[in-house]
Automatic annotation (TrEMBL):
Protein name per its UniProtKB record: FKB95-like N-terminal Kelch domain-containing protein
Pfam family, one: Kelch_FKB95
Chain residue ranges for the region called Disordered: 1-30
Span of domain FKB95-like N-terminal Kelch: 86-291
Low complexity bias locations: 1-14
Length: 370
C-alpha cells in the first residue's frame, strides 16, 4: 500500500473554509461524544461561473459546531469532480472507493486517508470499477455490491466484493440475485444489507422494493421482498441502537420526518417526535443578515447528508446564497435529533458561512479521532 502526497494546502481554498456567519441561532449546551468527526468530500469553486473546481475533504466537529478544511483529495482529474463513490471509515482511516468522473471514466481506484497523520495512501483497486453502488463495513472488512461499471447508462451489475484492510486485498463474493444500482449499503445485525436501487427497465417492480442480505459467515445472499417498499431508491440509511433509520429517498431526500424499520412487520414507520417540516425549506427564514440585521438574498439548498453518532442523528445541509453571479457563498447548517430524548429532540446549531460554492460529492462518514 503506497503512500501518496496530497496537494499542498497552501494552494487550496482552505483560508476561506469556513468563516463565521453573522446569523445567530443558539448553539446547544449539550455536547456530543468528543472523539468523533464527520468527514465529507465537497466540490469547491469560488464563484458560480468558475471553471476551476477542486475536491476538498472537510471535517465537522460536533462538539464545537465547526467545519475544518482537511486537504484536497489527491489523484483527481484537473477541474473535474468525483461523484458516485463510497466513503467509509475503519478505525482512524477513511476510504474513498470507486466513483466516476463525468465524461472521463468509472474508477476502480481506492484511496485511504489517515485522520491522525493526515496522510493519503493508494490501496488495492476494486476488481470491478463501479459507481452508485452499495458499500458498508462489517466485521472490519469493507463490502461493496452492485452499481454501474460504465458511463453509457448501462443497467448495472450484480457483482460484489470484499476488502480486507489488513491484507490490502479485494476478494470476489457470490453475485446478487439481480442487478442493482443507486442502492444503499448498511450493516445491520451482523450482515451486509443492499437495500432498494434501480434494477433496470425490464425487471419487476418488486425487485426495486426489495433487499439483498449477505451472510458473512455462510457466504451467501438472501433476498428480502418489500424491505424498502418504494420504487425510488433510498437516499441514505444508518443504524442507531440496532435500528435502521431513513429520512427520504433519491427524489425526496427529506420527507418531513425520520423513519425506522420494523423487521417483524416489514415496514417503515415514523420515529416519534421526528417531524420537522422546515428542515430543508429553501426559504426557511435563514436569510443572510447584514450588519443592520436586515435580510438580503434568499437561500437555495444544494446538499444534505446524515450521520449517526451515539444516540444522535446529525443532518448536514448546505445552502447556496443566491446573489451576485461573480461571487457566491455557501451556508452550512446542522440539525441534530436525539433519539434517546423524550421531548425537545431537535436542535439547530449556529449556521456557518463558507466563501464560494461547496457542493457535496457523496454522503459523509464518521471516523473516530485520537
Amino acid at each position: 500500500m503506497g503512500s501518496i502526497t496530497s496537494p499542498s494546502s497552501s494552494a487550496t481554498p482552505s483560508e476561506k473554509f469556513p468563516r463565521s456567519s453573522l446569523m445567530s441561532v443558539p448553539l446547544s449546551n449539550k455536547k456530543s461524544e468528543p472523539s468523533y468527526g464527520i468527514y465529507a468530500v465537497f466540490s469547491y469553486k469560488e464563484h458560480l461561473d468558475d471553471r476551476n473546481v477542486s475536491c476538498v475533504m472537510g471535517c465537522y466537529d460536533p462538539v464545537t459546531n465547526t467545519w475544518n478544511h482537511e486537504c484536497l483529495v489527491p489523484g483527481m482529474v484537473e477541474n473535474c469532480v468525483l461523484k458516485g463513490f463510497a466513503m467509509v471509515s475503519v478505525g482512524p482511516s477513511i476510504y474513498i472507493i470507486g466513483g466516476y468522473v463525468d465524461n472521463v471514466e468509472v474508477r476502480s481506484q481506492v484511496l485511504r486517508y489517515n485522520v491522525v497523520t493526515k496522510e493519503w495512501f493508494m490501496c488495492a483497486s476494486l476488481i470491478t470499477p463501479r459507481h452508485n453502488f452499495a458499500c458498508s463495513v462489517c466485521d472490519g472488512k469493507i463490502y461493496v455490491a452492485g452499481g454501474q461499471s460504465t458511463l453509457d447508462g448501462a443497467m448495472g451489475v450484480s457483482s460484489a466484493e470484499a476488502y480486507d484492510v489488513s491484507l490490502n486485498e479485494w476478494t470476489p463474493l457470490p453475485f446478487m440475485s439481480t442487478i442493482r444500482y443507486k442502492c444503499v449499503g448498511v450493516t445491520w445485525q451482523g450482515r451486509f444489507h443492499v437495500i432498494g436501487g434501480f434494477t433496470g427497465n425490464k425487471m419487476p417492480f418488486m425487485d426495486r422494493c426489495s433487499a439483498e442480505v449477505y451472510d458473512v459467515e455462510n457466504k451467501k445472499w438472501d433476498h428480502v421482498r418489500g424491505m424498502w417498499q418504494l420504487d425510488i431508491p433510498p437516499n441514505q440509511i444508518v443504524v442507531i441502537n440496532n435500528k435502521l433509520i431513513s429520512s427520504g429517498d433519491c427524489l425526496n431526500v427529506w420527507k418531513g420526518q425520520i423513519e425506522t424499520y420494523d423487521q417483524d412487520l416489514n415496514l417503515w414507520y415514523p420515529l416519534r417526535g421526528s417531524m420537522k417540516n422546515n428542515l430543508l425549506s429553501s426559504s426557511c427564514s435563514l436569510n443572510k443578515m447584514n450588519a443592520d440585521g436586515q435580510t438580503s438574498e434568499p437561500l437555495e439548498r444544494i446538499c444534505l447528508t446524515m450521520a449517526a453518532i451515539g444516540s444522535y442523528l446529525y443532518f448536514m445541509a448546505g445552502y447556496r446564497m443566491v446573489g451576485d453571479q461573480s461571487s457566491c457563498c455557501t451556508l452550512s447548517l446542522v440539525h441534530r435529533f436525539d433519539t434517546s430524548a423524550m421531548n425537545n429532540q431537535w436542535e439547530t446549531f449556529e449556521p456557518m458561512q463558507v466563501e464560494g460554492e461547496r457542493d457535496l460529492c457523496s454522503h459523509c462518514c464518521v471516523a473516530q479521532l485520537p
